[in-house]
Write a structure and sequence with these properties.
The protein is an alpha+beta fold. Helices cover about 45% and strands about 20% of the residues. The protein contains eleven helices and 13 strands. A six-stranded antiparallel beta sheet has the order 3-2-1-6-5-4, with helices on both faces. A five-stranded mixed beta sheet has the order 8-10-11-13-12, covered by helices on one side. Helix 5 packs antiparallel against helix 6, helix 8 runs parallel beside helix 9 and helix 9 runs antiparallel to helix 11. The chain is globular, with a radius of gyration of 21 Å. It starts with 6 loop residues before the first helix and ends with a strand.
Amino acid sequence: MSTPGDDARLTAVDSYRLLDAPRPVVLDELTRLASALFETPMSMVTLIGRDRQWFAGNTGMPDGHESLATSFCGEVVSSGVAMIVPDAREHPVYRTWSNVTGAPHIRFYAGVPLRDEDGHVLGTVCVLDDQPRTLGDQRLELLTTMAGQAAGHLAAIRARSLLAEVGDELSRAVSREEDFVASVSHELRTPVTTIQGYLELLVDNEELEPYRKMIEPIRRNGERLIRMVDHLLAGTRPEATPLPLLRGGTDLIAVAEAGAAACRAEATQRDVRIVIETTDRRVRVSGDFTRLSQAAEQLIRNAVLFSPAGTTVTVRVLDTGLEVADQGAGIPADELPHVAARFYRGRHAQEQAVSGVGLGLSIVDRIVRAHDGSFAITSPGTGRGTTVRMVLPA
């Protein structure tokens, strides 16, 4: 079993060249999905170095790195097994740690080992909350699946970097683009995320209750700004650049749940229900969990945005993909051929000032095509809703 100070393990961690480097966007996206799916304000993909832990993917935590002296993830790496802490304040050791007694006020922690193909425990994938919680076996299994996804993405990032070094032009192009996107994401997203973290603390402060009506809109618009940055970065990737994928046996029910979880707060605000209809068995396809969850999120969010209050968005898990149906305004026949074009916004979106920049369906189109799949949109007419189906190879 590898330990935090094991030389072979440390050599493996260093081989990814991510310590002190911009975070890979795909790992940030994975943590964002984890936070949405597990309903936790914080989640991370960590790499454990000799004397510190580095956030290779991060949602909700102060940016940068932390000492191993108060690292829950360091404990996971030491043991090599998953660890769940329902309430750190009740733990005889963790209750005195500075990150428990002070910001970010960790109460709940669940982390699983992040293993590479050689068995080295590089770090963890974890979710955290400032409130005590529990985690069932099924959720722990899903977190383990996400750790496998993170390990696969890390291996692909390292492989592309090595190929770029030996002169592969395509790999160099992908690496340059990923470096650019990571830098832009860091410069735009990190300040807003930090502001959001402090706002969460203000929202939880009972003494500031009289100011809640002013704080809440700031927090809500900060979340909207983060989503827009993610949207722009995902939707403006040059068409000629391949979309990096990590194919594996992906559970479509988990994809649907992740996409729905990312949209539930907005749906609640708009008084729109999201219902997931599944089969009695798991449905698996060969695909990238993170990318497919992004596609599901875009489809569900689109449906929510165009749904009247009091209606339902239905997400159906099919044998070969997902179907999202709403009861909204529908799409005129003359607009259907154009809705997947980048930055296209139909008449209804413009007239009703529906939020967005017209990238959602183009992102879905690119993700589905990268999986050798297809998606189709049907709309019977104005006021009769829209159904979007994405079909993926088994």
